[in-house]
Each structure stands twice: as C-alpha cells, then as structure tokens.
Specification:
GO terms for molecular function: ATP hydrolysis activity; endonuclease activity. By secondary structure, the protein is an alpha/beta fold. It has 15 helices and 23 strands. Among the domains are: 236 residues, P-loop containing nucleotide triphosphate hydrolases (Rossmann fold, 3-Layer(aba) Sandwich); 101 residues, Nucleotidyltransferase, domain 5. It binds zinc ion.
C-alpha cells in the first residue's frame, strides 16, 4: 500500500512530486482518489496573478551555460528575435492557452519551453508536465538541461529536496519530478501511459510530438491523454505543442499547425522594404560547372566568397539579401526592426496560435544549408531530412517502388515499436497467462508467411480472478483500432490465449467475444 500523504497547502515544503512516485500503476481505484486529492489542491491554491511577462523575466533571469549552449551568457531575444512573440504567449497575463510550433531543428524551441518552466518555478505556477518521445530522454532532459538551468539562474533554493524514501525503492523517478512552492514539474516519456493520465496539470509542454507512438498500448493518443489532464484548468492552462515534422501522413504537428492561425515570420527587404517570408524557392547561389555550390577557399580553408543569397520577392527589386544582413532584417517591430509574425487564417478554436519556422531564419548559415542540399542528390532519406530538419515542413512520400537501399534505411530509422506498417494486412495476438500477469505479443502479417512484431504488452494483475483489471486491459486492446499511415484501420483478427493454466478465467474471458464457426476470426482459448 502507498503511504499516506499529508498535503500542505500554500508555501509548502512537502515534496509533492514524491507522492506520485509511489503510485506506479494507476488502477481505477487509486486514480479516483488521486484526482479527488489533486482537485483539492487546486482549490487550495490562491489565484495567481503575475504581472511580469515571460520575455522580461527570461532576460532578467535566464543564463545560458557554455555546457548547454553555443552562445553562453544572459539570454537575449535579439539572438532569436522570432522567438519573442511565441514566448510572450506563455506569459501569465496572455489569454493564449494553446500554441503549436512546427519548426526545423536548431531553432530554439526547447529554450522557449525551458524559459517558461523557469518562470513557473519563480512564480509557483503548476502542476507542470513535460512530455518527450521516450522515457530515457525525459530523464536526460531533467538531468542535463533542467538542473543546470536552475543552477545557472541561482534558483536551487526554490526546489524542495526529495523526501527520504523507503530504502528498497528505486529513486530514479525523483530525478524526473521536482517540487517547488507547493507544486511540481514532471518529465515523462510519451509511452508512460499510467503517468500520462494520472494527475491534473495546468502547464503542458509536448516536445517532439512527431516522434510519439502512433497509438498507446491501451488505446488512445499520448498528446490527447496529456491534454485531457488540464481540462479542470480551462482558461488558466497553457498547452505548448512543438515538433520538427516527419512524414505528412502521420504528422501530428502539421495538423495542429493548420488548426491554429498559421503564422509565418515576415521580414522586410533591406532595399525596397517589401515584406516577405524567407523561402527556399528564393534562395539562389553561384554554382560550379557540375551544378554544386561554388565555394572558394584560401589555403587555410576559410571561405573567401559569398555565394548564397535570398532574392527579394519583389520582381522590380530582386535585391540579393545576404546571410550577414539577417541580424538587421530579422529584427522585430518595436525592437529596432519591422519583421513580424503574420497570421494567415482564423484559428479553429479560441485561444490558439500556431507558428511555422524554417531553417533560413535560424542559427545555421545559409552556406551550410546549401551544402546539405547539395548532398541530397536525389536520395529520398536525405531529402526527407532536408525537408523536415531545414525547411521545417512535413515530407510527402512520392516513391512508388522504393529500391532496396531505401527500404533498408527505412527499416532502421522508421520502424518504431507500436507502429503499424503500411504493408501489414492482418493483426493477430498471442497471450501467455502467467501467475501474476498477462504477456501479449501483437504480430502484423504481410501474408501468412511473413510476420512483423508490432507491440508487446504486459498487464500485471491476478489472471486467476476473472474480474481482475488485467483482463479488462486485454479486452481494450483487442477492441482497439490500429491505424496505418494511410489511415486504414486494422483490428486484431484473431487472438489466442493459452488455457492449460487458469483455465476457467480464460474460458470466461473468451465468452466476452462472439464465436465465429467458419471464420478465422475471434478470441479463443488455445491448448498446448
Ligand atoms: Zn526588395
């Protein structure tokens, strides 16, 4: 049994996060009492009113360290002007409750979240949930980025030390949860189903969402599950979705971007003042005879020419906008420049904004980007990387008959556990009944000879008891829809459960499903 937890409200010194560490698996029983408990805490909170905006706070408090940033020192928005407006949406006084950011790699998106997290620690805003693609990354994030950020800001005293736990209890989880001012932040992986649905939260940061599993083991979607946790906060909540997009067919960030008001960063031409987006189509460079970037270097390998430019979209002007002018034309309106985010539609729901950033705006030099482009040379993998990581756009597969090289690379990079590959035609499941758990192997079949492992579920419980929750969890998976990238829905065609052990429970469970005399379909006990 979980030890009793005595909540202290207001400026509590209790380790709130530790309470949740004791709840490993959320059963319907303890889930109810936990939600009731959290709702009590929420009502106990004073109404928080914070006058300081997140931008001012960040420049006052955030310090980038040489170990985690290429530009150490106090945080300055002049380095990444395009992050200012997005950051401001997360201020307490802003009425924006949901932001979706689709962006290339190295665009400072994680820093936006970190700034917000530091702000929440300063003002005791929470509970806060940070979700990333997997559990290891969630731990690494807290250890390698979050802890150093707190230290660099000199805010260690804000964090409540973890309470002494039972000696035999693993303490790994306390690394991922930090208590401060009576509330907490927790960092989790997108597959941690029980943790995704275990407690109400006010601030949700969903990072790299295009790397989340297509569907959770027990059904449902990681982002959706996390967002439902914030329903009790309604207008007080802040949801921040961000990702570098992947394939268009399966992207989460792409559809979210289109649900928002679709903002693009517009910059003025230094010559004619025409406002425009930096577009890949407008990038032009001097080429050698074989069509590659004409890069001239001295004996020391230093580049001596300036071969890349962005042609002004004004046909009368065609000014060559250069990389080194970026620090001028990227400056935002009200901060020494004219650049600004412009919405291109009304958002689908109130309080939502969405932003699309691309690599021409970010830290990378344009020469560097063109060199990466030259290396693509028609290779579909490298092309997808370029479209996703540099342009920040979803990639559409246009290949009908992929060659073997392409398939092999795909198998390594694209085969995530839980994904239902397009080529799978049928799903089957085999269940092994153990004394304290059910172990279930979900297989996808291309034809009846070739099978692919899709997912492996373990449901702890007492299979001896036909009413035990492990049977309900199995029931849910059997009835679940599995969605292929093309949106085709598959269900488990046949499920065989080994019966010699716990025979009565198995027979009882199979009774829940219809019996098909002629079809290779249904849920059956298996003997032998
Ligand atoms: Zn111009």
């Amino acid at each position: 049994m979980k030890p009793a937890f005595k909540p202290a409200f207001g400026p509590a010194n209790e380790d709130v996060a530790a309470y949740y560490d004791d709840v490993e698996v959320v059963s319907p029983k303890n889930k109810k009492s936990m939600i009731a408990f959290m709702n009590k805490i929420i009502q106990g909170f004073p109404t928080i009113s914070v006058a300081e905006g997140l931008v001012d706070f960040t420049e006052r408090r955030r310090v980038l360290t040489s170990g985690t940033s290429a530009r150490p020192g106090p945080y300055r928005f002049s380095v990444t002007p395009y992050t200012r407006e997005i950051t401001e949406c997360l201020s307490e006084y802003s009425n924006i409750t949901e932001v979706a950011l689709m962006k290339p790699t190295q665009w400072a998106a994680t820093n936006i979240m970190m700034n917000h997290q530091l702000y929440c620690v300063e003002y005791g805003i929470g509970p806060m949930l940070y979700v990333t693609s997997d559990d290891d990354l969630a731990g690494e994030y807290m250890e390698k980025r979050w802890d150093p950020m707190i230290v660099a800001a000199g805010m260690q005293d804000y964090i409540t030390p973890p309470v002494q736990k039972k000696a035999n209890k693993a303490t790994g989880d306390t690394r991922r949860a930090k208590s401060f001012k009576g509330t907490f932040i927790r960092s989790i992986g997108a597959r941690s189903e029980s943790k995704l649905s275990s407690f109400p939260v006010r601030i949700i940061h969903l990072d790299e969402i295009d790397k989340y599993p297509v569907a959770l083991a027990g059904g449902g979607d990681s982002s959706e599950k996390a967002i439902r946790r914030s329903d009790s906060y309604e207008n007080l909540r802040k949801i921040f979705h961000t990702s570098t997009p992947k394939k268009k067919a399966t992207s989460r960030i792409g559809p979210l971007f289109r649900q928002g008001d679709m903002r693009y960063y517009h910059v003025p031409c230094p010559m004619c003042g025409h406002m425009q987006r930096l577009l890949w189509a407008q990038m032009i460079w001097d080429k050698t005879e074989d069509g590659k970037l004409d890069l001239q270097m001295d004996d020391h390998g230093h580049v001596t020419n300036n071969p890349v430019w962005h042609e002004c979209a004004n046909k009368e002007c065609k000014y060559k906008m250069r990389d080194h002018e970026k620090i001028y034309f990227m400056r935002e309106r009200g901060h020494g420049g004219k650049a600004e985010w412009r919405p291109s539609k009304k958002p689908d729901r109130p309080g939502m904004r969405s932003y699309h950033g691309n690599g021409m705006e970010g830290f990378r030099s344009w020469i560097n980007i063109v060199i990466q482009w030259d290396n693509v040379e028609g290779d579909p993998i490298l092309l997808q990387d370029f479209v996703n990581d540099v342009l920040g756009e979803e990639y559409e597969d246009k290949i009908d008959k992929p060659d073997e090289h392409y398939l092999a690379s795909r198998a390594e990079t694209d085969w995530n556990r839980g994904d239902v590959n397009e080529r799978i035609k049928t799903l089957t499941m085999g269940v092994d009944v153990q004394g304290d758990r059910l172990e279930c192997a979900l297989l996808g079949w291309r034809d009846w000879k070739e099978s692919w492992p899709v997912e492996y579920f373990v449901f702890p419980g007492n299979p001896n008891d036909p009413n035990d929750d492990c049977w309900n969890l199995l029931d849910e998976v059997i009835r679940q829809d599995f969605v292929k990238p093309s949106k085709e829905v598959l269900k488990i065609q046949v499920c065989l459960i080994d019966a010699p052990f716990e025979n009565a429970s198995v027979m009882n469970f199979c009774e829940r499903f219809p019996y098909y005399a002629n079809g290779w379909r249904g849920v059956y006990p298996a003997f032998g």
